[in-house]
Write a structure and sequence with these properties.
two-stranded antiparallel sheet, 2 strands, 6 helices, about 190 residues, single chain, flat, mainly alpha
């Protein structure tokens, strides 16, 4: 059965001349609607099953064709092909996964986000080694001179005015979150 084009299709509420049936004359037949919806879902399930079967068959045929092509392959050719396959798989690692890995290594090593952007590598080991090299080249580890520690890339936060401390004393006491929220809730005069 060939389904008509959208322009030629008449919905159940349309008359043959293409005009809508007035709202007061429209009747929803629940039996027909249920049959229609069931048919749609059945067609969807059947098509999904067909797609799965065809995809499986395609993969099997591709695998068989690859095996036939590899039949006369030398050991060197096989190793080159496997190496290329592994490189292709590594290239498929989503950038967001790599970015998360970069920032995790950077956090562990105490790097800033700006420094983290400079890290090179695709595995945790490569990124960790690069972070260590980066820290070493920037003098963030080891000692300098006669037992004096080298300056690190970290800075200790200094007390500053915060909304939870209206006096701005910054005495290092922990901030009471409920007081901080209340200070924001006060009406401005």
């Amino acid at each position: 059965m060939t389904f008509p084009k959208f322009e030629d299709y008449k919905a159940p509420w349309e008359t043959k001349d293409g005009k809508d049936v007035p709202d007061e004359e429209q009747v929803i037949n629940k039996g027909q609607l249920k049959k229609f919806l069931h048919g749609l879902h059945s067609d969807k399930d059947r098509l999904q099953t067909t797609v799965t079967e065809v995809t499986k068959e395609r993969d099997e045929l591709k695998s068989a064709a690859d095996e036939a092509a590899r039949k006369d392959e030398t050991e060197v050719e096989r190793l080159k092909r496997e190496n290329a396959d592994l490189k292709a798989a590594a290239d498929k690692v989503p950038e967001t996964t790599r970015e998360a890995l970069v920032y995790r290594v950077a956090l562990e090593k105490g790097l800033t986000p700006k420094q983290a952007k400079r890290l090179q590598g695709n595995t945790e080991e490569e990124l960790t080694a690069d972070a260590d090299d980066l820290l070493e080249s920037w003098g963030a580890s080891g000692t300098e001179g006669e037992g004096e520690p080298k300056p690190t890339h970290h800075r200790t936060p200094r007390p500053s005015h915060n909304p939870g401390d209206p006096e701005g004393g910054g005495d290092g006491e922990p901030i009471d979150v409920s007081k901080a929220v209340d200070s924001f809730a006060r009406p401005l005069i």
